[in-house]
Specification:
The chain is α/β, with parallel strands linked by helices. It is built from 21 helices and 14 strands. The chain binds nicotinamide-adenine-dinucleotide (NAD).
């Protein structure tokens, strides 16, 4: 199955998530003008339809990692920004982040000096909340702590007009709980930007059961005006993107903690094998292990399922202060590039250790033929006869089928390894060297060296369903199907969220459709049978699509 996915992603290439601020974007009609050019009323009173509001000025509270970028996005779209911080020093620092970002854009020729000045003139650093009295929307981007968010909302309630929309950029706190304490809960929404805000195109617009009709539509239109793609969801822990991303990252760390695969191999399997822009462990370090832990805890509190339980290593690393890049040390070490624990060799091997003679055992299919021809071209003597004394037995491994039975049948299981191609056999593509419980260390070395000699990137994986790339991917795809099955989001919104919020080249449902629901189902069934974990149980919606032979894109009722 991974073969299909990888080749599809390779065909479509990777997304560049860079937003280009074109002239036409900057000159987009202001929200509040109808298609016919008629101006809509700016204010409509607290009982009226907030959808008709024109957003001319916003307040951004908290100009840290996210807030400075969000302020930049608003100002670039021609919207006035009142910038608020906890004190003058923090305000200077935040405005400095924004200035540095604009200066970089000028240096790179993406912005003229005149445009920079114009954008900058729209940002008004403010001494206090009273300066936000006239804004049409205020967004809080303060640390992820409920008590701080509550304080900010109380201030905004006090100074802002009852017609103003109040938004939170929270990643994991309950928007409903924030709204419930507001004087006018109907105007409170989540407006969840992704990091870095000027680049990532997704905005999750989160409504609560208290949100007034039309507010989410207004905020979605505003997001479009900012050049973003909004996805509207209801208030649920993790929304779409984090609810899918975090369990997958946590699963990857669990594989490391349990010795399933090495750190380098896990990241390589995800990037080269699956085609994701970043390995899950490197991404955890970037997000911050403490942040990842708190999001997992919120999701576990909400859903209570084992899939959302933080793996103990995540908690230990966070407790130890090894929170990732920001601490200089997390799963990897960023302080000292020569540190020994940054250099686990993973599947790397010396080509010189490659075997001279190989017994190749396969299913008589194209993969076996391709491998035989590549080995012969590399000067390796290949036989199909297991009785011939050779340096190594290679089983052309198939996803969903264990290697051990073929190794036992060959009579020399200690000299046998599986080789699973996660895509077409091409220079730089991924080969998983599958070690059975009887494979000797020498055989694993030789198999790894052989794959390297064929020009393949290699990882080592145990002889378990999905090997390495598949085991990460199948569970992730199952989460996406379950989210759709729960009726939380449709396939298109899920795909949009993962592509624009996480930089995926293709969304989970596009991947399932490309591979075929039946193939993903087979992978999950094998994992579920082997482990018995409920999180690997194939969702009925996937089984239904497999049985009906229909793609999610073509499904009349993809979620129920
Ligand atoms: N960092 C991310 O990748 C990311 C992505 C999406 C959403 N978020 C969410 O965005 C929010 C902010 O995260 P961040 O990473 O930008 O945090 P951060 O710590 O980088 O920035 C928070 C800013 O808020 C300011 N602040 C603190 N108390 C304040 C107060 N009382 N009044 C005004 N300003 C105050 C701080 O001085 C700081 O500059 C959080 O809710 C987080 O969950 C973060």
């Amino acid at each position: 199955m991974v073969e299909c996915l990888t080749s599809v992603w390779a065909r479509h290439g990777r997304l560049t998530s860079e937003v280009t601020y074109t002239e036409s974007h900057r000159n987009m009609p202001r929200y509040g003008a109808t298609d016919t050019g008629q101006a809509l009323p700016r204010r409509c009173g607290r009982d009226c339809n907030l959808a008709a509001m024109e957003i001319r000025e916003v307040a951004v509270v908290g100009l840290g990692t996210m807030g400075a970028g969000i302020a930049e996005v608003f100002a670039r779209a021609g919207i006035g920004v009142v910038a608020l911080e906890i004190d003058a020093a923090a305000l200077n620092r935040g405005v400095g982040i924004l200035d540095a970002s604009l200066s970089r854009a000028v240096t790179k020729g993406r912005l003229t000096a005149a445009e920079q000045a114009q954008i900058r003139s729209r940002v008004r650093p403010a001494a206090g909340f009273s300066e936000a009295a006239a804004v049409d929307l205020a967004i809080e981007v303060v640390p992820e702590r409920m008590e701080i968010k509550r304080e900010i909302f109380a201030e905004l309630d006090r100074v802002c007009s009852p017609d103003a929309i109040l938004a939170t950029n929270t990643s994991s706190l309950s928007v409903t709980a924030i709204a419930a304490e507001s004087k006018y809960p109907g105007r409170v929404v989540g407006m969840h930007f992704f990091n870095p805000a000027p680049v990532m195109r997704l905005v999750e617009v989160v409504s609560t059961v208290l949100t007034t009709d039309g507010v989410a539509a207004t905020v979605s239109d505003l997001a479009r005006r900012l050049g973003k793609t909004p996805v509207q969801v209801s208030d649920r822990a993790g929304f779409i993107a984090n609810a899918l991303l975090l369990p997958y990252l946590n699963h990857a760390l669990h594989l490391l903690a349990t010795g399933y695969a090495s750190r380098a191999d896990i990241d390589l399997a995800a990037t080269v094998g699956i085609g994701l822009p970043m390995g899950p462990l490197a991404l955890l370090d970037l997000i911050g292990l403490d942040t990842a832990l708190s999001i997992m805890e919120v999701m576990h509190g909400e859903f209570g399922l084992p899939r959302y339980m933080a793996t103990p290593l995540l908690r230990r690393l966070a407790d130890a202060g090894r929170t990732g890049r920001k601490a200089g040390r997390g799963i990897y070490d960023y302080g000292d590039s020569s540190a020994s624990d940054n250099h686990d060799q993973g599947g790397n091997a010396l080509v010189s250790a490659a075997p001279d003679t190989v017994t190749l055992i396969g299913a008589g299919d194209d993969v076996e033929a391709e491998l035989a021809s590549a080995m012969a071209s590399a000067g390796i003597n290949v036989t199909r006869n297991a009785a011939h004394p050779t340096d190594l037995i290679v089983i052309a491994a198939e996803a969903g089928r264990p290697v051990l039975p073929a190794a036992l049948a060959a009579g020399r299981p200690e000299q046998a390894v599986g080789l699973h191609l996660a895509g077409k056999l091409a220079p730089g593509s991924l080969a998983e060297v599958v070690q059975t419980s009887l494979s000797s260390a020498d055989a694993v070395e030789a198999g790894t060296a052989l794959a390297a000699k064929l020009g393949l990137a290699t990882v080592r994986a145990p002889d378990r369903p999905g090997f390495l790339a598949g085991t990460l991917l199948y569970a992730h795809l199952a989460d996406a199907v379950r989210m759709c099955q729960d009726g939380y989001a449709g396939p298109t919104d899920v795909d949009t969220a993962m592509k624009l919020g996480c930089g995926y080249p293709r969304g989970p449902f596009e991947l399932i459709d490309a591979a075929g629901a039946a193939s993903v189902l087979t992978g999950l069934e094998a994992m579920h049978e082997a482990y018995g974990y409920p999180e690997f149980a194939p969702p009925p919606l996937l089984a239904e699509h497999a049985a009906a032979g229909i793609a999610f894109a073509a499904s009349p009722r993809p979620g129920r």
